[in-house]
Amino acid sequence: MKYFKMNYMKVYGSGLLICTLTLLFFCNPKEETIPVKTPKKVLILGNSITWHPASPSINWLGNWGMAATAADKDFLSLLTDKIIEINEQNEVLGRNVYPFERGYETISLTEFEDLKTFKADIIVIRFGENIAEPERAATPQLQVAVKDFVDYLADGRPVKVILTTPFWSNPGVNQNFLALSEQNKWPLIPLDDLSLAQENMALERFENISVGSHPGDLGMERIATRIWTVLANEL
What's this model's pTM, rounded to 2 decimal places? Predict the structure, then answer.
């Protein structure tokens, strides 16, 4: 009878190798995949608080949101920095739409063709101060005009819309914007309480009260912060 001498070292070594590879396969953690956020286009519709060209006749020499001390101090710049910081491929377009405020009843929306071609994913409605006449501010026709404006800019695409109240108290506009918010599920950000504190304005820097009653640097910062609290969730 022949006896076969088994090489236990070879068997043991092979088994150890197999066990080691098995452990490595099951225990090696998978690399975490960081989700890539789709770049978003943000359109901010405003008025002189968003941007106002230099107007020496009223002692406004800036070319940014009135009455910030510098271009990087207005709410549009502050908000843009936050939007780009979260994704450098995001795009921001801010526009003074004063003509819409002053003529929403009859204005041709084709005046804003370039805003439509921007193809915004998110629209921030940050105007209303120049709808000052009580009857124009309170009429439900304002709701229709704003909704038509949004629909024109959306051009059949789904868009997110964020509303703010005017910086200065305007009960009529507030009521209409509240109705738009409830009807369309658009978040509404209150800003009118900010103008109750002079620290949020620039009255000490300008003799012209129409300029000085605009938000100063602190007011601009607080506007940007409130909008960002809502906007950040959409980016």
Answer: 0.85
